[in-house]
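Dear Dr. H.,

I hope your travels went smoothly. While you were away I took the liberty of generating a structure for the chain from your last submission, since the lab meeting agenda had it listed for discussion. I wanted you to have the full record in hand beforehand rather than looking at slides cold. The sequence, exactly as received, is reproduced here:
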Amino acid sequence: MSKENGIDSLSNNVGETATPDFYVLGGGSVYLLQPNTHAAHDWIGEHIPEDAQTLGESIAVEHRYIWDIIEGARADDLTVEKAG
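The corresponding predicted structure, in token form, is as follows:
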């Protein structure tokens, strides 16, 4: 799967009982990575630089980096879904 098409292929299971660790919002040149669980917040603390741009609790991520971050979170057994 190419990185360009990868975000669109994320499942959108909003409304199911299990809350994903992260939601990915937005598109274009910037995405927001929204942590939803304690595990996701911990993962951000370990893997994302402290000076990363934020919007509320979400991390602003350039399009060229979002897929690598998603793959890293999934490699650590965290769930990531596209919001909305």
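Two observations you may find useful: The helical segments are 3-9, 38-47, 63-75. Residues 3-82 form one domain.

With kind regards,
E. W.
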